[in-house]
Amino acid sequence: MSGDRVLEGLPQEVQPLLRAYLKRVVPSLGAALESLVLYGSAVRGEFVRGRSNVNLLLVVANLDGEALRKLAKLHARWKREQVVALLFTPAELQRWATSFPLEFGELKEGHRLLAGRDLLPTIRLDGGVTSELIGREAKANLLRLRQRYVEGGATGEAALILLSLSMTGLAPCFRGWLRLRDRPIPAKTEQQIEEIGRSLSIDSKPLLEAWDLRCGRISPGPVEVPRLFDRYLTAVEELVRRLEAAPA
């Protein structure tokens, strides 16, 4: 399949980047390349230039020191283009999927094969996604939010960065929760947030504000940033409490 063919339907902003990446990286890896998959916002139709990463899953035959040094050279020019690659060997995929079913569930359900063979359909999510797992992920997100805000000096700059990071990290939890409850998963993340708000009876407005910030739709000033952070923090704390109280 040609490079242009595999890129059909993807956001116009990422197609030239991926075309150049495929032209450079695929021949360089040669037979060592097992699979190259695109996932995340570029596949879900929520890519925002300058804000979203281009998320890749790169499966290669081995990842010893020599292989990592080769990959580092290949990826040096792509770092500034926000290309981020998860690196695995074929044998590692199943083992890691068992440990991280939420993340690999996202990968299985929303990805685009760019080169090699698609290994994700063969992955089993033993134990699958549970209410306990989603609650644990949300708690870890809250702990990181608090810790990194303090480490960042509780500045407005730290708040802006952390709001986007935290919201991006919570989005798979929302989709996992809806999937677990056999509820339809709306196409857009903001619709998923609204559905989570209704499902758990929480105020979804601060979560929506953080998503709008992440997507570049709002630009709060220095006075509003701390208020937005406080509203978001309260909303995540309530989210965690509701997830803890929800039936398994």
TrEMBL record:
Full protein name: Polymerase nucleotidyl transferase domain-containing protein
InterPro entries tied to this protein: NT_sf
